[in-house]
Structure formats: structure tokens, C-alpha cells
Amino acid sequence: MRFFTPTRRLILIGGVAAVAANWGHLPKALRPGAYPFRLGVASGDPLTTGFIIWTRLAPRPEEQRGGMPSEPVAVDWEVASDDAFRTVVARGRATAFPELAHSVHVDVQGLQPGGHYWYRFASMGEQSETGKAQTLPDPRSHVARVRFAALGCQHYETGYYTALRHAAEEELDFIYHFGDYIYEYDVGIGMEVFRQPAALIRRYRGGAPSTLEDYRQRYAQTKESLSLQKAHASTTWFCTYDDHEVQNNWVSDHDQGGSPPDMFLLRRNAALQAWYEHMPVRDMPPIVSGRPPDCRRHAQWGGLLNAHFLNTRLYRSDQPCGDGPKPLCPETRAPALQVLGKTQEEWLADGLKASPCTWDLIAQQIMVAPVNFLSDDGDARYNMDSWAAYETARNRLFDMIEARPSGNAMIVTGDMHENWACDLIHKERVIASEIVSTSITSDGDGSVMQVGRDKVMKANPFVKWTNSRRGYVVSEVTPDAWVSHYRVMDAVTTRNMPAYTAASWGVGVGERGLRRI
Asked: Which stretches make up the PhoD-like phosphatase metallophosphatase domain (predicted)?
């Protein structure tokens, strides 16, 4: 099968002629004219010699199985070193199996370190759009700059994905998605903003998901967004999951709704199977491997940046003191409490201790800074679903950061639906800083600052700045400094709003503590 740039319609030649001859005998969904790439394309998990490229065949995403029959389908792919595909450097054929929702995860290998590549797929007589991907540079190479975005928390019903379209235009080396790609709430159940339901501007199809097919429907509807597709096609992603891919505030094998443990595990495994099927990740599918995807990653950009992508859901102890905002109870200091789990802690400690880079990025899902959010009466309130409720685990994390041989550590986080710039204090000194990115849409339009956040900042002097608009954070990393730009929009319930930089915060190499740029 040959690919052509001017049109996505394919001309079939050579060995594929037999497929053309059989079109009249194929189910309607497999005949030419049923465009199968309506969920877009994506790349992720880069190495120095390759990356994963992804697509899912779904000519009718609103239907069960995406309008596909229960049979395998061939998918051709190719990778080129130019966007016109004059120099194709890799090509092959994959199989989209119905057991994996007709998704394909191609592990492209044999590429050059630090290379820019373009990729596309062909199947069912149609050609996909083109995506762009990058391999990691040689770890011994000099890298002058890395530019990436952190984004996530994209509740479909509470806003348009305009921020993702803006992110696609940022010319990034990679995008880190910190989770909450979908929301598991029932249709019409909005988030709360200042104790009022957020405005709902569109609706999920179907009810609250509990089965594999339910979760597949949520992903299919989410990925129909052209803004999301543009962001995926613009650069390589590192994807992790947080709680709403399964259920609000779940951890390990604990849910928050009182389900019997075996029933919750059925739901969790179905949800994470659907997550795998729709993400450009290197993990084995849970339905094959028998275990949930881990999504831990190390990635290095020369001697400049060493990134550690964590999983703060799968191995965590149940929230102490009960879930929700509460004063800290004695259980938060229990030595056995885990956020990462022993194996992942050791993995991170080894990675930080051996890091040869100027900067270490710790990319993870839940806020590390122990912010006292205060009640209306001024009483202490901490987020039990954050590192604030796991004091001993947080101290172990800080000890790992202190054990690094040199350079600076930065933590990048999501989950809070607000922008935050915080310093992290351990043993009465700043050891690192935390950049918290707001949501893409969750909680609706937001505001410049949530009510009462001025009091929160006074009660927490390590908090340098906060903002409650929607958007994402772009970080620029150089040998001299780390600067994070908080890119926001004034509304997500209105289409096509412009993005602007609300603030930029950074730190110089060898310095401790954020300063406004």
C-alpha cells in the first residue's frame, strides 16, 4: 500500500490488490468510504532509537466497538524524516485486534537519536492524518534547551478543549499528561466551583462507566475532539493516569464508594485496559499481561534533563484520616504509609542518585507541597488525597532529592485544577520547587484567584503564587535556568478563547527558591 501526501484516499497496488478484490465481501464498516481514523493518531514513550505510534480504528465512534466488526484488521504504517514523506525510514504492517478495541501500538525502532520524524497509518482504503514525533537525544550529547508542556484534568462536559489546540502550537519537545484524561462521573454531574456546580456545556454519551465497553465509549467521545487530536499529533507524549480514569480518589485496590473489593478490582482493571487502548504507551495491555499498566518512566535529554515519571495511584496506601479535606491526624505520620510503594521508591532513589544531569524533573500526579487550605473558620484543612497526608513518605521523597549528587530538582504536578508555584522545604531549607499546572477544563472557567486563596498564601509562606484559570504550563529548561510559563484562558465555556501567560516563575541553576520572571 502506497501513501500519498495530497489526499488521505489510498491507491492500492501490489500485494494489497488482493484486499481490494475482497472489499465486496467485507462488512460495511471495512469498505472504502468509512473513514477509520476519526480518533486521530499519537506518539509516546520515546527512546533514543524509537517511539510508540498509536491509532484506533473507529469509523463510527458513537457506536459499540466504534463501528468495527469483531475481526482483526490490517493497518499499514510508515515513518519518515520529512513531513512530505520523501525519505521513509521505517514502515510495516500491524494488526488491529477487536480484543484491543482495534487499537494498534507500534514500537518503531532503528531510528537516530535526537531525530524529528513524521508518521502516518493506512487501513480500510484510507490514510490517517500525519503526526510528528521525536526520539530522545544521545545521553552523552550536549542539549541546549528542552521545552515541554504539562497538562491534564480535561472533564469533557465542563469546557471546550481550546487549550489543547494552543498547546499544539507551542513547538514542544514533549507533552506530559498528568492524568484525568476522562471523567467517570455520570452524565450531567459537574464539578463544584465555590460549592456551586460548574456549568455543563456538553454531555457524555451513556451513563457512568463501570465496564470495559463503557470506558471505551468515554475515551472515544473524548478523542473525537480535533483540538485534542492536534495536540497528540504535534509532538511525543508521556502519559500517566490519575484517579478519574477509574474512580474519584481511588488508590491501589481501594475505592471510595464502598464497593466490594473484588467488584472494584473488576472495574479498575477494565478502566485501565481502556486507558491502555487509547494511549501511546509502551506498557503491555492488562488483558494480556494480567496486571495494570505501571507508567513509570525514565527519560534523559543529554546532560541537561533527567525526567522521572511516577505513578502515585497504583501502589499508594489508602488515604489516612478518611478522604476529603481535614486536619492532619496522627495516622499521617505512620512509617508504613506509602505513596509510591517500596519498589518504585527504590527505583526513583536509584535514578536520582545516578543522575548525571543539571536538572531532574519529577513528574507526578498529586500535589507535594503540604498546603493548609483553611476552613471558613480558619481551621486547618489538608487535602487527604495529596502528599500532605503522607508525611513520612514525603520526607523519604525529600531525602532522595537531597541525595542527588548535584544540580537542581523540580517537581511538576497536576490534579488541583489551579496553578500553583511553591517551594518545597525540608529540614528548614528549600530543597526543590514545585510547579502545579491547572486543568484543561475541569471546574469550568475558573477565576484569577479562588475565594480565600489570599488567606491560604499568608498561612503557607512557601506558596509563591496561585491562579485559578484553565490552561497548561510550558517549562523551558536550559543549562542556566528553569522557567515555567503559566498559559491560561479567561473561559473554557466559550469557544476559541485566546491563551496568554498569566505569570512566569523560575529558578537559576544552583539556586534554591522560585522567583517571578
From this structure: 148-484
